Amino acid sequence: MDEVARDPGAIGARVEGYSWYALGVLVLVCLLNFVDRQLLTILAVDIKRDLAIDDGQFGFLYGTAFGVFYALFGIPLGKLADRYARTRLLAIGLALWSGMTALSGLSRSFVQLGAARIGVGVGEATAGPCAYSLLADYFPPRRRATAIAIYSAGVYLGGGVSLYLGTSIASAWNNAFPISERPFGLAGWQAAFLAVGIPGLLLSAWVRSLREPVRGRYEGTPHPNQSGRQALRAFVADLGTIVPPFTLFAAARRGRASLVSNLIALALVAAAATLASLLLGDPLQWIALGTGVYAIISWASSLRLSDPAAYQVIWKSPTIVGLNIGYGLLSAVSYASAAFGPLFAMQYHAISPTAVALVVGGSAAAGGALGVVTGGALGDRVGANGSNSRRILIVIVASALSLVPNLVSLLTGSSTVFLLSVFPMWFLMSAGLGGASGAMVNLVPPSLRATATAAFFLGATILGLALGPYSAGRISTEFASLRVGLGAMLLLLIPAFVALGIAWRSCYRQEQARGA
User: pLDDT tens for residues 213-257?
Assistant: First the structure.
């Protein structure tokens, strides 16, 4: 595929039209990504009934089954995106997660739907690293946060669209076919998964047609892509550093000390997962989460020896670590709201599924999309002089302000007040994403952007997606109150602000030291 060329010194030059075109295609990818991910939420009532599952198990399907494998494969796929043609890799991933979304519609049990969600997670693990890395080379530093924020608007647009599509397709199917006459015995929620998954296969061909930009073009340090054979060999090796049980073989090749430390980590994680299963139940949740934690430990240990430079950037920098942890904890709150918000509206305010899709989904989509773009543009404005600490401040301030409408939405008994709180809540929660993402891509060197992006999503996935929805659902089940389950998630804002404060302080000191 032809590569887009540009003088790396022309930082102030006008952004070329093709970059905006490519951004538009990537927004569609992001939108479909979250349509496939969020479709589960508006269909929750029917899925819980047909598969006989509770809120905790639903949280596992929405978060853990998807999130752990999204995070686990995100690292090797992120590293692959640092070596291989990103447009080609993204097209393959899009085809995979779209196919698995369609297969979700054929699920007849909790286990089958969980397996399909795992497949969706593996495929979607290509999206963030590829898209962020591509946008960093399509756009100069002064426009990156804005471009990434526009891309990220697809998160909220996709979430809102999924609610409308889910209710429309499921209702139309159930109204057209009585239970005894349903084609292949498929319920409306199953038809919705099939109808949403298939178009992604067509979009993957469009993504494949995009031109691959020169890696590092604006930094004056271009990095050519490796050949397919070289990249594949490296990818297989990377799988051995993070995917069990291959992690044990990789550790053994590094020497006895590495193998022993890996086995100790495995034993400790297995013991913790076993104890959690005995005390709390839900063994699938703790096995999956334990697998993810062990995989991350294995990857970090391997990275420390194989790529010290990347290890220093991702695991030793207080700025990056604090940003990742803080944003991960904030994500737990937003993912819990995304997973159970529609169900909360139906249970506590007797709002119909159609109204939830149009009003709640529309307000959340509009608020989230506008918020993330505003946060990204504001990040570019305050960080125009190279100050990433100011970008981090945007994350802190916007997230703190979001607490007000969040509490209002949970405590009010008025349906009108609840509906009015949805837009500002999602606007403020999402406004931090543009600042966090923009800071991250500008803090790391071009050759590590995709890998650092995958690590950035680790916090949002393991802390946010794998724990947030499950915890909210489990607390809801224990207290028989979804309000209590969602309210408990707000306590995570305390450690989130501590981590973000550490990131801001470290970044600010570094900027002061170099006179930025």
Answer: 988 777 666 667 767 788 888 888 888 878 888 889 888 988 899
From the list 23, 307, 24, 2, the residue with the least C-alpha distance to 137 is: 23
DSSP string for residues in 381-426: HHTTTS-HHHHHHHHHHHHHHHHHHHHHHHH---HHHHHHHHHHHH
Rounded CA-CA distance 96/351 in Å is: 35
CA 138, CA 1: separation in Å to the nearest integer? Answer: 15
Amino acid letter for position 331: S
Residue 213 is inside which H or E element, if any? strand 212-213
Q: Which of 402, 401, 380, 407 is closest to 391 using CA atoms?
A: 380
Cβ-contact 13, 136 below 8 angstroms: no
Residue carrying the six token digits 């819980």: 48
Neighbours of 220 (CB within 10 A): 11
Q: Packing angle between helix 188-197 and helix 44-51, nearest 10 degrees?
A: 120
Which of these, 440, 443, 464, 466, lies nearest to 453 by C-alpha position? 440
Q: Are 154 and 30 in contact (CB under 8 A)?
A: yes
pLDDT of residue 141 exceeding 90: no
Longest dimension (CA), the chain: 73
SS3 content of the chain, % helix, strand, coil (to 5): 85, 0, 15
248-295 pLDDT per residue, tens = 988 898 889 999 999 999 999 999 999 999 998 889 899 989 998 898
Question: Would you say 126 and 17 are in contact if contact means Cβ atoms under 8 Å apart?
Answer: no
How many helices (H) does the chain have, and how many strands (E)? Answer: 24, 2
Q: Which residue has the tokens 């994350």?
A: 395
- 123, with CB counted inside 10 A (0-12, 13-18, 19+), is buried
| Phi, psi of 226, rounded to the nearest 5 degrees | -80, 165
Whether this model's pTM surpasses 0.85: no
157 contact partners, CB below 8 Å, separation of at least 6: 27, 31, 34, 365, 368, 369
Q: Which residues of 258-277 are buried (b: 16+ CB within 10 A; e: fewer)?
A: bbeebeebbeebeeebeebb
